[in-house]
Amino acid sequence: MENAVDTVTTQRTAAPPAVGRPPSRWRAARAPYLFLAPAVVLFLAFLGAPICYTIYLSLRASKVSGPGLGSGSRQEGWAGLSNYVTALGDSEFLAGVGRVLLYGLILVPTMMGLALLFALLLDSGRSRARGFSRTAIFLPYAVPAVIASLLWGFLYLPDVSPFVYLLEQVGITTPDILSSGGIIFAVANIALWGGVGFNMIILYTSLQAIPADLSEAARIDGASEVQIAWRIKIPMVMPSLVLTFLFSMIATLQVFAEPITLKPLTNTISSTWTPLMKVYRDAFTRNDVYSAAATSVLIALATIVLSFVFLKLVGNRAFNQETTR
Asked: Is the pTM higher than 0.85?
């Protein structure tokens, strides 16, 4: 009897079996870095390393020794900032920058205005067939830029365009949109066709997140749909509006697919019509990767500076206004 009591007492006082040890502080501290490691490796391999190599190439140049004949006549050497000085003094590069700025002034406000208008119309309580309308507006964004440029290019050509044919049948003379005066509008129209749907979806999603009670209370107070949109909806989606404007501005500075696809269809688009087209020509036509690298770095710096200035002037006010709510 005494042995049985001792056995029971021993079983009660014995420590329960360990189910699992909690992770140590060192393991818990390194866990986030292990999860981030694949993304960091991919970033360094496919983005960081090319950027560093581009900066390295921009500081180099090909130097010719002797008569310039033979395999060893051209050697790569240190050039310092001479490639940047040459790029900044290149009239073709400066002309391309001017065209891109004009292109952005035409495209970005028009695209953002239409995207906001469509988003507000779809969010309105009186809208019908929202699902079909969203799909119809967004669908052009799913078409690749090269294909869209080819489609629009043939619509621009007077000899094959059905629109030009129909208008001529009723006696209306159409202007040549591929001329030197209209080509920038032709390129902007292609980007507008695809960009409105993408920005509209982002703005419409932000509008859907606004509580419906605010709009209902404004309607009870006698506010119209225009007043509700102007005084309630637009201020509350201002952060999304700022971000979409920023993304559109960055895409505008990097315009390349549309003009280079239209180039074989018209003589008004040169090989340096945009800065990125000049980079492509220098790198793959003239085989001057050093000048192309310097121009690429300048484009990247301009994009970063403009984005920073824009966010500093507009973004802080918009995001601070959203935070105070």
From this structure: no
281 pLDDT higher than 60:
yes
Q: Is residue 172 part of a domain?
A: yes
Asked whether residue 51 is domain-assigned, the answer is no
Q: How far is CA 115 from the centre of its chain?
A: 15
Count of structural domains within the chain: 1
Q: Is residue 7 part of a domain?
A: no
Cβ neighbors of 201 (< 8 A, separation 6 or more) are 134, 138
Closest CA to 225 of 245, 252, 207: 207
Choose among 223, 244, 246: nearest CA to 309. Answer: 246
Written as one letter, the residue type at 315 is G
Q: What is the dihedral of CA 119, 121, 124, 129, to 10 degrees?
A: -100
The amino acid at 280: Y
Do the beta carbons of residue 92 and residue 278 sit within 8 Å? yes
- Looking at the chain, the whole-number percentage of residues with pLDDT higher than 90 is 50
What is the tens place of the pLDDT at every residue in 134-153? 889 999 999 999 999 999 99
Q: pLDDT tens digit string along 210-232?
A: 888 888 888 888 888 888 888 88
Rounded to whole angstroms, how far apart are CA atoms 80 and 282? 19
Give rounded-to-5 percent helix, strand, coil for the chain: 75, 5, 25
- Nearest of 196, 100, 194, 104 to residue 149 by alpha carbon: 194
Our measurement of the distance from residue 59's CA atom to the centroid of its chain's CA atoms, rounded to an integer in Å, reads 28
**What range does the domain containing 94 cover?**
90-324
Is 127 inside any structural domain?
Answer: yes
Host H or E run for residue 74: strand 74-78
Task: Report whether 290 contacts 60 (CB < 8 A).
Answer: yes
Count each helix (H run) and each strand (E run) in the chain, helices first: 17, 2
Q: What's 285's domain CATH number?
A: 1.10.3720.10
